[in-house]
Amino acid sequence: MNKTFRFLPALFLTALLAGTAFAADKVDINSADAATLDRVLNGVGPSKAEAIVAHRKQHGAFRSADELSEVKGIGLSIIEQNRDRITVGGGAARPAAAKPKPKAPAPAAR
Fold first, then answer.
1. Helix or strand run (H / E) with residue 40
2. Are the C-beta atoms of residues 52 and 27 closer than 8 Å to each other?
3. Which of 31, 55, 99, 102 is the most buried (most CB within 10 A)?
């Protein structure tokens, strides 16, 4: 019985360390540079990573991982392959859509 209790802490420590070794890297698509996107995301090479950064600069922060499909060369299959690796942090907000100005009321008839 004494051997079992000595073995449990070692087993626990091994399981804890193994769990962190198998954890996939995560990347915030709103703050990562192209090199990080290239390294962490499967199916994304240097040119697609640059396209993600350029799209983010032009259109503002992504609100969800699904918005990556707006980037040329990034399809739903790449998004699904990487869904567990993608995080969406703050970042610069997307420009708000211009709201139409209300029309001035017509002059009252006399």
1. helix 34-40
2. no
3. 55
